[in-house]
């Protein structure tokens, strides 16, 4: 499995190959965010 990150703009990002909880926690810490909104699909 490959892992990586694709950044489209400052607000649009695709993270793959990592557990979701880990990726969300890292993103929230990087942005110093207290709350997050996750938009996901079935695939």
What does this structure look like?
The chain has one helix at 20-31, and strands spanning 4-7, 13-16. With 43 residues, it is α+β, with helices and mostly antiparallel strands. The chain has one domain. A two-stranded antiparallel sheet has the order 1-2. Strand 1 and strand 2 form a beta hairpin. The two termini are 16 Å apart.
Q: How far apart lie the N and C ends?
A: 16 Å
Strand coverage percent: 15-25%
Shape: globular
Going across the biggest sheet, name each strand in turn: 1-2
Give the rounded overall mean pLDDT. Answer: 87
Low-confidence stretches are: none
Count of discrete alpha- or pi-helical segments spanning 4 or more residues: 1
Domains, number: 1
Estimate percent helicity.
25-40%
- The total of beta strands comes to 2
Helix and strand string, N-terminal first? Answer: EEH
Largest sheet: 2 strands, antiparallel
Structural class: alpha+beta
Give the radius of gyration.
11 Å
Provide a short characterization of the protein structure.
With 43 residues, the protein is an alpha+beta fold. It has one helix at 20-31, and strands at residues 4-7, 13-16. It has a two-stranded antiparallel sheet.
Top keywords for this entry?
single chain, 43 residues, alpha+beta, two-stranded antiparallel sheet, 2 strands, 28% helix, 19% strand
């Amino acid at each position: 499995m490959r892992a990586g990150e694709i950044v489209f703009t400052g607000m649009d990002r695709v993270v793959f190959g990592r557990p979701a909880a880990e990726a969300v926690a890292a993103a929230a810490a990087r942005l110093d965010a207290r709350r997050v909104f996750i938009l996901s699909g079935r695939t």
